[in-house]
Amino acid sequence: MLKETSSSSADRTEQMREIKNEVVALTGSPLYAYRKMNHYHPVIGEGSHHAKIMIVGEAPGRNEAETGRPFCGAAGKILDELLASIGIPRQDVYVTNIVKDRPPENRDPLPEEIAAYGPFLDRQIAVIQPKVIATLGRFSMVYVMEKFGLIDEMENISRAHGKVFTAHAPFGDLKIVPLYHPAASIYQQDLKETLRKDFQILKTIT
Ligand code: URA
Fold it and tell me: What separation in Å is there between the alpha carbon of 184 and the centre of ligand 1?
């Protein structure tokens, strides 16, 4: 397949700004009223626009919605530790979520919420053109695997975690690595160990 030429930093910054402006103005989102009522911010994403690794979580929690920054609470602390354990600085990756606004009381995202915000994640992927997408938790695994036509290869996260799937994008091939969500490991030490082992894979495929 013909590869799209990579865009300049200025182009990427501009496209990301457009994405942000559109999410900020997303009055039709099922989570817009909840955002406004709580004086929350949408959480767009953070990191290098030239990242080789993109990390896709589920949805912002309270800390994230209060600050507008992804993974800045308890789950973010674990993500930082995991990245440190493989020697990858957080500013070198791009961290985002499928759903860009906090769902009430951190409940699971609803299909209509994923449908409302998914296209923005699609555009972020097209801007960054990552070599690897690491998904955190089952919602982002399902979304990203479906997006890249890998639904037939998909398994339950308890089997798929730490495996490497090859996907084809207009900008070239990339790897998808489903991982457990760091929040799930807060009270489960064995999951933290599994995440630590699985993260090693990111080091070897970039
Ligand atoms: N959990 C997520 O999935 N994303 C965040 O940004 C924070 C917690």
Answer: 11
> Any idea where the domains of the chain sit in the sequence?
9-204
Closest to 99 (Cα-Cα) out of 18, 29, 27, 178: 29
How far apart are alpha carbons 175 and 139 in whole angstroms? 18
Residue range 83-126, pLDDT digits in tens: 999 999 999 999 999 999 999 999 999 999 999 999 999 999 99
pLDDT above 90: percentage of residues in the chain: 95
To the question of pTM greater than 0.70 for the whole model, the response is yes
Q: Indicate whether residue 96 lines ligand 1 (CB < 6 A).
A: no
In whole angstroms, give the CA distance from residue 140 to residue 181. 10
Question: CATH for 9-204?
Answer: 3.40.470.10
